[in-house]
Design brief:
Helix content is 27%, strand content 21%. It is built from 13 helices and 22 strands. The strands form 6 sheets. It has a 5-stranded antiparallel sheet. It has a 4-stranded mixed sheet with strand order 9-8-5-11, with no helix packed on it. Helix 2 crosses helix 9. The longest helix is centred in the N-terminal third of the chain and has 30 residues.
Length: 494
């Protein structure tokens, strides 16, 4: 047993078999401690296991190059970026709570291989929103580039833990990742018109990543449209199968039955983690060694993972997550910048993984109406913004607000009757919304279409079942950041 680390061996009582059951209380006490620790480790490690599982796209896309995994999601080989050329399909049933405001580019990097070059756009129309969000394996945002932070056009170098070197000539800066595996998510805002989408694609085509060994003085041009056309399917999955049954993809990204094995793979790929996660990483390694020491410990830890998973998913609901943000809305105040808030980070991984740094975008959520009842599509609800009280975002840096409708499982309506899955700035810019004579704007949420002209114009369709709401505020101004601005309540009116 000397090959088992000390911190693992100490979980085993020295004399559990004393006569007359005298060792039983100590054994139970040790087991209780291990159970408690394992439960916390599950919450701590859940986002990282989820994120590391997404690197499966490396193999799926290895031969095909950047493209659309299963024709629906941006995918790419290791240290490349894959793109869509339009909004993510509302019919997909794999990624929960995607936005319907931007076109995505996605890369998962392995910085243990070599550093990664990040190219930022140089030709961006004034007021156009773009970002490159960089997260570590635990989904904590380490860097947020883009229009909101006035990131200049050029090249930056992303390096992994322990990298020693100088900033190469021609680079803006060197960015450090807390873990070897990192996620990079490009977003380019678009409205609904062909002209707006063409503009968004032109910006997105200037955003990309590639290994440092391939760097040249010239800028590279990426091709989101070619990526979107390059539809790649894993073995055993076809476009026809997904067309017949989109719910084939409705699979939890973390399998509690394999959690400990997957956690070990994640830690092996990320031997160094950030300071907020390092102590728990050592505790996790101790439990992994304990699990291998006997069938008894394996059974106990496997059971804890199943129980913790059930508890996490029961807690991670829009009617529960976050703290009061006024008028029935809730908010995680540290979104994206989790520090040692392992609980909040795990909740976010379930309901809206890869949220931006809250300085970049603030998310208000809710699953109840003004009376505290769950939102139901069979009723009619109103959100009334008084004159001049729409969310205060910064349009000069591309700021926008958007209210998105999700079903009880946090997917969009596959077939919205008026084509809307969200309502916000794009509708205002297109003059689609109708204001009252007093300057107020009332949004209507219901499954059935309103019959009055104003209601029809301001209607956000709901499913014929329970639903949830997410209000995105990109590039929030100080009144949102400091909590002085309050969204209006959601009131049942029919």
């Amino acid at each position: 047993m000397t090959d088992i680390p000390y911190v693992t061996r100490q979980f085993m009582p020295a004399h559990p078999d004393l006569k007359n059951g005298a060792g039983i209380p100590a054994s139970l006490g040790y087991q209780a401690y291990v159970e408690s620790l394992a439960r916390i480790i599950y919450y701590w490690g859940y986002p990282a296991v989820d994120g590391f599982g997404r690197t499966s796209s490396w193999d799926v896309m290895k031969e095909a190059g950047p493209g659309a995994t299963m024709g629906l999601f941006p995918g790419a080989p290791k240290n490349r970026m894959g793109y869509l050329d339009d909004y993510m399909s509302p019919a997909q049933r794999k990624v929960v709570t995607p936005n319907a405001d931007t076109i995505y580019g996605v890369s998962f990097a392995d910085l243990s291989v070599e550093p990664l070059v990040i190219q930022t756009p140089v030709d961006v129309p004034p007021g156009h929103y773009w970002t490159i969000q960089i997260v570590d394996i635990f989904t904590t945002v380490t860097h947020q580039l883009g229009s909101a932070s006035y990131t200049p056009g050029g090249k930056l170098l992303l390096v992994g833990p322990g990298w020693q070197g100088e900033k190469p000539d021609g680079f803006i800066d060197v960015l450090h990742s807390a873990t070897a595996v990192a996620g990079l998510f490009g977003r380019s805002f678009t409205a609904h018109s062909p002209e707006d989408k063409a503009r968004a694609r032109r910006v997105l085509n200037q955003i990309g990543v590639y290994p440092l060994s391939e760097d040249t003085p010239e800028r590279k041009t990426f091709d989101c449209e070619a990526s979107a056309r390059n539809k790649v399917y894993p073995a055993g999955v076809t476009a026809e199968m997904l067309e017949r049954d989109p719910d084939l993809l409705r699979i939890r990204p973390v399998d509690a039955r394999k959690f400990w094995d997957d956690l070990e793979k994640m830690l092996d790929a990320n031997p160094v983690v950030g300071p907020d996660d390092a102590p728990m990483a050592e505790q996790a390694r101790a439990l992994l060694a304990l699990r291998k020491s006997s069938d008894q410990w394996r059974t106990l830890l496997d059971r804890v993972a199943l129980a913790a998973d059930a508890e996490l998913h029961a807690a991670a609901r829009y009617d529960q997550v976050g703290v009061d943000a006024g008028n029935g809305w809730q908010r995680q105040e540290n979104s994206g910048v989790w520090g040692s808030d392992w609980f909040g980070r795990a909740l976010a991984a379930v309901i809206y993984i890869y949220v931006n740094d809250y300085h970049e975008a603030i998310y208000f959520i809710r699953g109840t109406d003004a009376d505290g009842a769950l939102l139901q599509g069979r009723y009619r609800y109103a959100i009334r913004f008084e004159k001049g009280q729409l969310p205060p975002v910064d349009p000069a840096r591309g700021g926008f607000w958007s209210l998105t409708m999700y079903d009880r499982d946090y997917y969009m309506l596959a077939r919205s009757p008026n084509g809307r899955n969200n309502i916000g700035r794009v509708n205002l810019d297109a003059n689609e919304l109708k204001f009252a004579d007093d300057g107020s704007l009332t949004l209507i949420l219901s499954h059935e279409e309103p019959t009055d002209t104003e209601g029809k114009a301001n209607w956000l369709p709901a499913p014929d079942d329970q639903f949830a709401l997410l209000m995105r505020n990109y590039v929030p101004t100080e009144p949102i950041l400091n909590g002085n601005y309050k969204l209006p309540d959601v009131k049942r009116v029919g």
